[in-house]
């Protein structure tokens, strides 16, 4: 057994837990809409690609599902229920047996060890059709024995890196990211080391899942990225990160934090293009790509006034990175930082202009190659 596969990353990133107004559970409508928009695709592709005639999909055996990067709900429950509904449809109506047997389901909810699993299981549906279990640990490495899972789901989680590239915080490095908190708008050396780390992480993720899936196992990924040729710095994401970084610089001037603390803080996000993803999956060689499709943009058509949009944006960002801010700078600045961020967005709301909404979410349906 390779011990390296079980080493945790340098930081255990997690969403804000509990059920309070700042929690991820209360501020993840964007991610929920992506889960909903993927429902029909999952149903269609399970119907087409789930090979229930294979011994590994014997209905007398347990059908095991893993949701990687589950956070604390409720989105993970919606996704799992849709997968089970789709699998049941296949067994009921596509079997050659007159009264087909439906398998029992074991669902594994995975996230980092610091994830609020208590909140997750406190909110788990009473009417569920599966046996739930929590699996703490980084999905960038192995989490299950060989050939354990039949279906893997991972939505809006794979843009998280396992760690910040060390070069961006080293003062003598050509990729030192002084005065910035992300590669958006930074010099090309910063983008390059982020990209290198992402390639390592995706390779690790795919290799681990290929071993954990049964022969012919299926995997759905929903990944946030940018179409080819789009500059992240000219997107709402890039603009938002730059404004947040300026808020941290303001807090340096106010004496709340130090310049060194800001220079050593970088966000662990990388947003790939679909061509990057396709190349990485093909290079890995463990999966057939059955479908790549761009999902409709969540909340795009919602007519909200600017004040509400800004509040939703800041609350969502706080739920996602509030833990990172607290870990690096201490909890004393969290409230003031996000209040300042909200104030600056009111003063400069350009990121909400339609022309800057260039990010995209890509749905990918993969099937493990049967010869593995």
Task: Tell me about this structure.
With 372 residues, the protein is of the alpha/beta class. It has one domain: Vaccinia Virus protein VP39 (Rossmann fold). It is 38% helix and 15% strand. It contains 10 helices and 7 strands. Strands 3-2-1-4-5-7-6 form a 7-stranded mixed sheet, sandwiched between helices. Strand 4 (149-155), helix 5 (188-212) and strand 5 form a beta-alpha-beta unit. Helix 1 runs parallel beside helix 3, helix 2 packs parallel to helix 3 and helix 9 packs antiparallel against helix 10. The radius of gyration is 21 Å and the shape is globular. The model is unreliable at 1-11 (pLDDT under 50). GO terms for molecular function: metal ion binding; methyltransferase activity.
What secondary-structure arrangement, pairings included, does this model have?
Layout: H1 29-37, H2 39-49, E1 63-68, H3 75-93, E2 105-111, H4 117-122, E3 131-136, E4 149-155, H5 188-212, E5 213-225, H6 236-253, H7 259-263, H8 274-284, E6 287-294, H9 306-329, H10 334-347, E7 360-368
Parallel strand pairs: 1-2, 1-4, 2-3, 4-5
Antiparallel strand pairs: 5-7, 6-7
Helix pairs in contact: 1-3, 2-3, 6-10, 9-10
Q: Record the strand order, biggest sheet.
A: 3-2-1-4-5-7-6
Count of folded domains: 1
Supply the CATH class: Alpha Beta
Question: Residue share in helices?
Answer: 25-40%
Quickly give the CATH architecture. 3-Layer(aba) Sandwich
Terminal Cα span: 18 Å
Largest sheet report: 7 strands, mixed
Please state the structural category. Answer: alpha/beta
Strand content: 15-25%
Find the count of extended strands (DSSP E, 2+ residues): 7
